[in-house]
Amino acid sequence: MARGGARPGAGRPRKTADPKPKTMTKAQIADAADAAQLSPLEFMLAAMNDPSHDLKFRAQMAQAAAPYVHGKPGEEKAGKKAAAQDRAREVAGGNRFRPVGTPSLSVVKQ
Fold it and tell me: How far apart are CA 32 and CA 24, in angstroms?
């Protein structure tokens, strides 16, 4: 019984002859943005909406532009805990370290 050696079909598959879809390099993106005199956000939105680019590139542009177009939810969605803390601050008068009052001094005889 033979052991070892190369086995047919084993190992990593060879590359196929299919060319990869063309993606733009960072230098090409910068040149295109400079030529069109667009802001980076305008360029990303234009590239995202251009059907001549491949889908992967358009998805990357959408992902990069999303934080500038759609902001994160802010404090307008405060929960129950935040509301309770706000009420506690109002009751305390805003400063919890302020002195409550002057201590009363009295003389005690024994």
Answer: 10
Exposure of 83 in the CB half-sphere (CA atoms within 13 A): 5
Give the lowest-confidence range in 80-84, 86-90, 95-99: 95-99
| Distance in angstroms (rounded) separating the CA atoms of residues 107 and 1 | 108
* pLDDT for res 98: 64
pTM over 0.90: no
How many Cβ atoms from other residues are within 10 Å of residue 12's Cβ? Answer: 5
CA dist 57 → 41, 50, 54, 93, 108 (Å)? 15, 10, 6, 54, 85
Nearest residue to 54 via CA among 77, 27, 20: 20
Task: Tell the burial category of 38 from Cβ atoms under 10 Å away from its Cβ (0-12, 13-18, 19+).
Answer: middle
